[in-house]
Amino acid sequence: MKRLIIATGNMGKLNEIKEIMNTDEIEIISMKEAGVDIDIVEDGKTFEENALIKAKAVCGACGEIVLSDDSGLEVDYLNKEPGIYSARYMGEDTPYSIKNAEILKRLEGVPDEKRTGRFVCAVAAAFPNGEEIVVTETMEGRIGYEERGENGFGYDPIFRPDGYEVSSGELPMEEKNLISHRGKAFRRMWAILSKREEFKQ
């Protein structure tokens, strides 16, 4: 069976990607499962640059097609912070409950109409021949007033997608994947890849 390597060590993210891509045609595995254990410095200035840095580094190490995503939360009132630093905001090992509390604190007294923001996800594909493909999608919404919900991870509990009265953390995974930035980006990427010779059965 053909396989696709995802440049992540986050099993929660890997499982989410498997559900999103929803295919039995290929095996989807993490870089660790592919035997790649390297430190990657994400020093890009955009989500797209960081996704490509990771994909190219892992592709170079294993010689196979690699997908990588870089995603994060942009809060308009906070000049689009934490943005590309979402995972490293307040320190990489800082629990998201503390990160979420800090964002809510910085938005104290800010009215609903000014609490706009979005999740952004850039997905990059790196090929052994040097070819690259990058797609970007977003999920627009607003920052809530408290953490709500046990589903999802990261900033999901404080983000309310447009058209919903609940947070991303309260949505069932299947429903969230239909509207999420990551869901849209990986489905778009798989629509491109599945038409290529490398993945045709």
Describe the fold and architecture.
The protein is an alpha/beta fold. The protein has a single domain (3-199), classed as Maf protein (Alpha-Beta Complex), CATH 3.90.950.10. Helix content is 29%, strand content 23%. It has helices at residues 11-21, 47-62, 96-106, 173-179, 181-193; strands spanning 3-6, 27-30, 66-75, 81-82, 116-126, 132-143, 159-161. Strands 1, 2, 3, 4, 5, 6 and 7 form a seven-stranded mixed beta sheet that branches. Strand 1, helix 1 and strand 2 (27-30) form a beta-alpha-beta unit. The longest helix has 16 residues, at 47-62. The protein is globular.
Mind sketching the topology for me?
Layout: E1 3-6, H1 11-21, E2 27-30, H2 47-62, E3 66-75, E4 81-82, H3 96-106, E5 116-126, E6 132-143, E7 159-161, H4 173-179, H5 181-193
Parallel strand pairs: 1-2, 1-3
Antiparallel strand pairs: 3-4, 3-5, 5-6, 6-7
Helix pairs in contact: 1-5, 4-5
Quick take:
29% of the residues lie in helices and 23% in strands. It is α/β, with parallel strands linked by helices. The model has no long low-confidence stretch (mean pLDDT 93).
Keywords:
single chain, 201 residues, alpha/beta, Maf protein, seven-stranded mixed sheet
- Total count of domains: 1
Low-confidence stretches: none
Beta-strand share of residues = 15-25%
Let me know the number of strands: 7
Anisotropy-based shape: globular
Alpha-carbon distance between the termini? 9 Å
What is the percent of helical residues? 25-40%
Query: Mean pLDDT, as a whole number?
Result: 93
Which fold does the CATH topology refer to?
Answer: Maf protein
